[in-house]
């Protein structure tokens, strides 16, 4: 007799979970533990660095090995009498928020492995030694570390499939649908963590280009648009090259530095967005011009095209 489709998917969930737990074991109990032991001797790499690389992998490993996998195994052994996994996954879902921290840290972790491998040959050797072991299956530490990042999307796919294949009158339908919704929210949560990390990284790069003036550096700012612009001087009917950074709360009117040591731009003027007015100017001599007037002063600016001008105005 053919196994029902939903049971096949539940079994696939169990099998991938077993493989996943052994991957987590490798990360936490082998790589992390052995690198930490070496770090304590003070010869390879600071302990802090090892902790930063592995983030909260220990909590993730314990949760899956001691709670989720055993619960799933019990369910599958009892499937014929009680064919359901939805309730177990509902218990799992809130804990998956722990992944936010790991996912957010992932790029930094990979950078640290690369940097310290160059800086510390013993560190690189130890990683290479572990990677040669059979349990590593010829894959690098970075490759194994990607697994937790990919696990939540995998749960989501399997569970979607499971819900699709469930017979309408299945006792697991309500629980499974609720579990899917919860997993979906967690996946969104970890994507939001990645998006926020990227936003902060990009913001930091902009601050460095501006020379890190401390009254400008604020993590809550959002960069909306940046680009070169011509400033029109009505006094002598000429234009000069300037550069604008538009944030959610201020417009920075900058001059590109000729000698770029450190910063690329010098901030000539900060205008508050609050109370700012913008309008197009119909100027035959200078096409694509617009006027920006704020509390601090008024600027007459020229874009390179009508499209670019409309972008700035918008």
Gist of the model:
This protein has 9 helices and 7 strands; from the N terminus they run ααααααααβββββββα. With 314 residues, it is of the alpha+beta class. The relative contact order is 0.09.
Give an account of the 3D structure.
This protein has helices at residues 5-41, 47-54, 57-77, 86-92, 99-119, 121-131, 141-165, 173-209, 306-313, and strands at 223-233, 238-247, 250-256, 265-272, 277-281, 289-293, 298-302. With 314 residues, the chain is of the alpha+beta class. The chain has a seven-stranded antiparallel β-sheet, covered by helices on one side. It is flat, with a radius of gyration of 28 Å. Its main location: cytoplasm. This is FGD2 protein. It is found in: Cytoplasm, Cytoskeleton.
State the shape: flat
Report strand %: 15-25%
Helical proportion, percent range: 55-70%
Compute the number of structural domains. 2
Poorly predicted ranges: none
Helix-strand category? alpha+beta
Largest sheet: 7 strands, antiparallel
Distance between the termini: 64 Å
User: If you compute it from the alpha carbons, what radius of gyration comes out, rounded to the nearest whole angstrom?
Assistant: 28 Å
CATH topology of the largest domain: Dbl Homology Domain, Chain A
CATH class of the largest domain: Mainly Alpha
CATH architecture descriptor name of the largest domain: Up-down Bundle
What is the CATH superfamily of the largest domain?
Answer: Dbl homology (DH) domain
Average of pLDDT: 87
Summed up, the helix count is 9
| Spatial arrangement of strands, main beta sheet | 4-3-2-1-7-6-5
Oligomer: single chain
Output the helix-strand order. HHHHHHHHEEEEEEEH
DSSP strand tally: 7
